[in-house]
Specification:
With about 180 residues, this protein is an alpha+beta fold. The chain has two domains: about 35 residues, no CATH class; about 150 residues, no CATH class. About 35% of the residues lie in helices and about 25% in strands. The strands form three sheets. The protein has a four-stranded antiparallel sheet with strand order 1-9-8-2. A three-stranded antiparallel sheet has the order 3-7-6. Strands 4-5 form a two-stranded antiparallel sheet. A hairpin with a 3-residue loop joins strand 8 and strand 9. Helix 1 packs antiparallel against helix 2 and helix 3 packs across helix 5. The longest helix has 16 residues. The radius of gyration is 19 Å and the shape is globular. The protein starts with a helix and ends with a strand. The N terminus is likely disordered.
């Protein structure tokens, strides 16, 4: 949203600076900057009563993919968008699965965001390029509907096989994460 407001402000300054302020020109810029309201899919998963670190990591990953645009023919990489889930990048130690066992690792919880995104993308038939299931069942999606990630090792990727750009809107509120896909 901040990016869109900055675009509007810059366009108004530019138009005003040309000495030819036109309400129709400003209306056109504002309209172009508005996000599409054609929702293609939405998926929500819950993490009520999650440990603080897990909730923090989910929120960080959700923010990292928010407002991403995937153009036709492009491939979206969850890991490229979120980046390494390290302490240096602000992630905390949280519960992860390692070789089928419970463990602690930086970024524990981000797989809930990748799984939520997978379900939203799959619902509209986006081409799933890379997806891996966890070594154990998770409690936030139906069995077999998860998408685990580990930066530099395994990723969740989808290709936009549509004729229009797709925008990812992602929001975590402390109890759930919602991902909506829009026609951009």
């Amino acid at each position: 949203m901040i990016k869109r407001l900055a675009l509007i402000a810059a366009a108004i300054v530019f138009i005003g600076g040309c000495g030819q302020r036109s309400d129709s020109m400003i209306d056109s810029v504002v309209e172009a900057a508005q996000p599409s309201t054609e929702k293609l899919s939405e998926f929500t998963t819950e993490f009520k009563n999650a440990e603080k670190a897990r909730a923090h990591n989910i929120t960080m990953a959700a923010k990292a993919i928010d407002e991403k645009i995937v153009n036709p023919g492009e491939t979206f990489s969850f890991n490229d968008s979120v980046g390494p889930t390290t302490k240096a990048n602000g992630f905390m130690l949280g519960k992860i699965f390692s070789n089928g066992k419970n463990a602690k690792g930086y970024g524990g919880g981000v797989c809930q965001v990748s799984s939520t995104l997978f379900n939203a993308a799959d619902a509209i038939g986006l081409e799933i390029v890379e997806r891996h299931k966890h070594s154990k069942s998770v409690n936030y999606v139906e069995k077999g509907r998860d998408a685990t990630v580990s930066h530099g090792v395994i990723d969740f990727k989808f290709a936009n096989n549509k004729s229009y750009p797709v925008r990812i809107d992602s929001f975590a509120n402390g109890e759930s994460v919602t991902i909506a896909l829009y026609k951009a």
